[in-house]
Specification:
The complex is a heterodimer of chains A (219) and B (222). With 219 residues, chain A is mainly alpha-helical. Chain A contains 8 helices and no strands. Chain A has one domain: Orthogonal Bundle (MetI-like fold), CATH 1.10.3720. Chain B has 222 residues and is an all-alpha fold. Classes of the chains: A mainly alpha (219), B mainly alpha (222).
């Protein structure tokens, strides 16, 4: 281990780290939006829209992010759609994550027992009240573990961005290894930065999971 | 649109061959992961503090480290630090088995600890000995829970093996790139057609498997 090398590389890694986090969180915000929206469409069985959502979810859940990114980054410009690599990265991650989030939110919504709906209606609640004060709070709680798992999965998947020449952590490490052959230092720094990025999310996630878990009726 | 490139020569066959390479690596890794995962998962339910500490650290590493980083560590790092020369295929199988074993062991642990205590007590009350309890009561239930989940692991493994192109294995994406490069002059739009085809190929490979997993899960629900 050569610590001078590490000191020299540090600024490059920090820059890459910031970019990774930026695109990662934009992608995740996008995926949460898509997920909530599509889950509602599926839950309320809106005709046509729910068929489209189903095809989208199956298509993106059954293909790897790398292939999706190659398709949008190299394929789409050929038919005249061209934006920056960063935007493609965020959109790619958003679309992939959206399909996973849809499933998590939908299973949360579907897991709320029918008796809850029936009881709320029997108490004279309106459809709006039923949804906002009975179903939604329970559905959110039920989908927390899956959503946290998805967050970690999506942040991990950002490592694939290096394939479409985004200067993320993976790209920087690969580049520096290729230039100066300081393999050990580069890989150790890579691991440290990923731990730095993901360990807080993992710990915070399990805390939130514990905090939001409450006993369901009948447990 | 660039689809015509695939009809030239044996391009389509080469692409399928590339998918075959990815499948081959993922099936070997899944087999190893299931085998080791069952052992580790069973060990985890013993509540031995050493095994528990080890498995917690192991699972956390796998949970937060991207598979690509693990691939780089094994493929480039092992060569440098240990001085051994691993082929790209071997290192990818090592990494995916390392990842898959963690996933599988967690599933096994979940399935084992999900079996109610009442099952053990009832079979004992019926006069079964420990062996009979496991063979006739516990294991059949665990297998029913595990099969859909392990099938699901196969699709995730197939999706993850697309990363191996990053350490130089010639699989479907790499073959696609080669085809695009070779036909740059004659069909400049090949990238769209080729990558759309690869996208569909992966979908066709994974979709039936995930349908099967969903079907079995529904069928065997208690």
């Amino acid at each position: 281990m050569n610590f001078e090398v590490i000191r020299d590389y540090l600024p490059l890694y920090i820059k890459a780290f910031m970019l990774t986090i930026k695109i990662g969180w934009i992608g995740i915000a996008l995926s949460l939006g898509i997920g909530v929206f599509s889950a509602f469409i599926l839950h309320f069985k809106i005709p046509i829209a729910s068929q489209i959502v189903k095809v989208y979810v199956e298509l993106f859940r059954n293909t790897p992010l790398l292939v999706q990114l190659f398709f949008v980054y190299f394929g789409l410009p050929k038919i005249g759609i061209s934006i920056s690599a960063e935007a493609y990265g965020a959109i790619g991650l958003g679309l992939l994550g959206g399909s996973y989030m849809t499933e998590s939110f939908r299973s949360g919504l579907d897991a709320v027992k029918v008796s809850q709906t029936e009881s709320a209606l029997a108490l004279g609640m309106s459809k709006g009240q039923l949804f906002t004060s009975v179903i939604l709070p329970q559905a959110v709680t039920l989908s927390v573990p899956a959503v946290v798992a998805n967050l970690i999965f999506l942040l991990k998947e950002t490592s694939v961005f290096s394939a479409i020449s985004l200067m993320d952590l993976m790209f920087t490490a690969k580049d520096l290894i290729g230039l100066y052959y300081n393999t050990t230092e580069c890989l150790v720094m890579l691991v440290v930065f990923y731990i730095f990025m993901l360990l807080p999310v993992s710990i915070l996630g399990s805390v939130i999971e514990k905090k939001t878990r409450f006993k369901m009726f009948g447990d | 649109m660039g689809f015509e490139v695939l009809l030239k020569g044996n391009n389509m066959l080469r692409l399928l061959g590339g998918l075959g390479v990815a499948m081959y690596i993922s099936l070997i890794s899944v087999a190893i992961s299931i085998f080791l995962g069952i052992i580790l998962g069973a060990l985890m339910t013993l509540k031995n503090p050493v095994i528990n500490a080890f498995s917690r650290v192991y699972l956390e590493i796998v949970r937060i480290m991207p598979q690509m980083v693990l691939l780089f560590i094994v493929y480039f790092g092992a060569t440098k630090v240990l001085g051994i020369n691993l082929s790209a295929e071997i290192s990818s199988i090592i990494v995916f088995s390392f990842w898959g074993t963690a996933e599988m062991s967690d599933l096994v642990r979940g399935a084992l600890s999900g079996i109610d205590k009442i099952q053990y007590e009832s079979s004992m009350a019926l006069g079964m000995n420990t062996r009979q309890t496991y063979f006739h009561v516990i294991i059949p239930q665990i297998i029913r829970r595990l099969i859909p989940l392990s099938i699901n692991l196969i699709t995730r493994m197939i999706k993850t093996t697309s990363l191996v192109m990053m350490i130089g294995i010639v699989e479907v994406l790499k073959v696609g790139q080669q085809i695009i490069e070779a036909n740059r002059k004659s069909s400049p739009n090949a990238a769209f057609g080729v990558f759309a085809t690869i996208f569909l190929l992966y979908f066709l490979a994974c979709y039936p498997i995930s349908c099967l997993s969903k079907y079995l899960e529904k069928k065997w629900e208690n």
